[in-house]
Amino acid sequence: MDWGFIFERTFSTMIGPEVVIYALAALGLNIHFGYTGLLNFGHVAFMAAGAYGLGVSVYYFHWNFWIGLGMAMVYSIVLALILGIPTLRLRADYLGLVTIAASETIRITVRSRVFKPITGGAEGISEFSKPFYDLSPFDLGRFYSFGPFRYLGRDLWVLVVGWTLLILLTLMVQQVMRAPWGRALRAIREDEDAARSLGKNAYAFKIQSLLFGGAIGAVAGVVQVVQKGSIQADGFNPTITFTIWMILIIGGPARPWSPIAGSMIYWSLIIFVENVLRQLSPQTRESLERTIKLSDINIGQMRYIIVGLGLLLLARYRPQGIFGSREEMALDDR
Amino acid sequence: MIANYSPTPGVSKNRPALVVKNVSKSFGGLKAVDVKHLEIESGVITALIGPNGAGKTTFFNLLTAFDSIDSGSIELFGKDIVGVASQNLAKQGMVRTFQLTKALSKMTVIDNLKLGALHQSGENFIKSLFTPIWSSQEREIESRADALLDRFNLSHMRDEFAGTMSGGQRKLLEMARALMTDPQILMLDEPMAGVNPALTQSLLGHVKLLRDEGRTVIFVEHNMDVVRDISDWVVVMAEGAIIAEGTPDHIRSNQVVIDAYLGVHHDRELSNDV
Fold first, then answer.
1. What interface predicted TM-score (ipTM) does this complex get?
2. Stretch B220-229: mean pLDDT, rounded?
C-alpha cells in the first residue's frame, strides 16, 4: 500500500477546495442553527442562489463578472426574505419545512426546460469565471507542490482566495457573536418570549440572522461554481444540505471555528478511507469480496458507510462535537 | 393613601399606572377574560389573585401584549398601548416575568443580565462589527449587571450557565434581569411558585424593595400569606372578571371572594339531600 500517496491525497484535501466550500456553507448554517436556533434544512438553496446569481448575470445577461458577484448577494437576500418573512413569526419547525421544500423547488425549477433560456436547464451554465482566473498569479495548468500538498495552479488560486474569504468571514462571525448582537441571537435561540419581554425584536433579529447566514451560504455557492467552472442544477440537491449539517455537528454548533474543523475532518476522512480502500492488497480484497464487492463504484459508497459509522460513534461519545462543551449540552436535559 | 380607596371593583385611583377598560378575550366559545374597568395605582404592590382558571395569566398576557385583546382599551401612564408589540412595551417601562421561569440556560448568568439592558448600540448588526462603538456602553451595562447580581446574592453564580441554577435562583435571576430594563412597572407572574420558604422571604424582601424604589409591582399569587404580607392592594379575578378589589384586610373578609374560592355552599355540611 502506497501510504505516501494516501497521505498526500488526504493532506491536500484537508485544505483543498471542498473543505473551503463546505466550511463556508457550514459557517452560514452555524449562524442560522448554531447561534439563532433556526432550523434551515435547505441551506443548499442559498448556495444555488449565489451560483445562479453569478452565472445567469454573466452568461445570459452579459454583465461584468464583478457585478455578477453582487447579483449573487442580491439573489441570496431575496431568497432569505422570501423564506423568512412568512415563516419566522411562526414556530421554528415551519422554517424547516419551508426551507427543505424551497431548496428542492428551486433545483427543479432551474433545471426545467421552461427556464432553459435563462438558467441553462439541466445542462447548466459554464463560461462565466474567466475574469477571476485572469487575475491568477499562478500558471493555471501547472502543478504546484509544497510539503505533502499538491495542487493544480487553477485550484491553488481558488484556494488562496477561498481561504482568505473563509478566514475573514469567520473572524467577522466571531466578532458579531461576541457583540450584543450575537447575545440577542443566542437569547432568541434559548427563549424567544424571554427576549421579547426584554425589549428585543425577535423577528427582526431572526431575519437579520437568515440574511447574514444566507449571504455566506451564497459565497460558498459562488466559490464552488467558480472552482468547478460550471453550474449544474442537480449539484444543488438535499444531500449537500445534510452534508453541511453533518460538518456543523462534527465541529460543534455555535462555535466560530467549528465549521472549518468539521469540514477538514469530514473531507479528509472521506478521502483517506477512499484511498485506503482503493489500495487494499489483492489478497485482502479477495477475502473481503466474499461479503462485499469492492468495485470502484462500491468504494464510493463504502467510504460513506465507514464515515457514517464514525459519525455514529461521535454522536455517541462526543455529542457536543469537536469544539462544543459537554456541560452546555447537558443543560438541554433540564 | 391607597387604603382610603373604596373597596369596590373598578374604583378609580389618583395616580393610575394602568387603566384597563372593557377588555375581553375569548378562546373559541370560552370567554377567558372580561374586565370592565380596572385601574392599577402606581408606586404600590398590587396582587392579582383568583382561583385556578380565573384568567389571571391570560389577563397578564393581554396586558403585556403576549396575547392580543379582542376588544377594549389599555392605557399605560395615559398612553394607549393596544397593538404595541411586547418588545416595545419594555421600552415604555413595562416588563414582565413568567410563571415558568425563562432562564436562558446556555447563557451565563451575567450574559442573561446584560441582555436585559435596553437601547444597546451593539445590537445593531453594522455597529456590532466595530467594538469601540459599543464597548463603553457594554462596560456600563456590565457594572449595572454586577450591582444587581450583588443585590440579589447571585454574584457567586456570575459566570455559570443559567441552566445550572436552582428554581429559586432562576426566579431571582429573572427578577434581576427584568430590572436591567429599569422598568416603571414590573409584572411578576407567580414569583414565589416552587420556591422554598427560606428563599420566599428573601424574594418578598426584594419585591418590597422594588416598591420602595418607587416602582409599580403587579403580581399573580396563590399563597394568601404572601399576598397579605406584601401587597398594598388586592384584585380578585374569577371566571375572567374582576369580582373584588381592596386592601388585603378587606379582601380577607369579603364574602364574594370566599364564595369564589370555596364555593357558595362551603360552610354547609356535606349531605346527600339536594
1. 0.90
2. 85
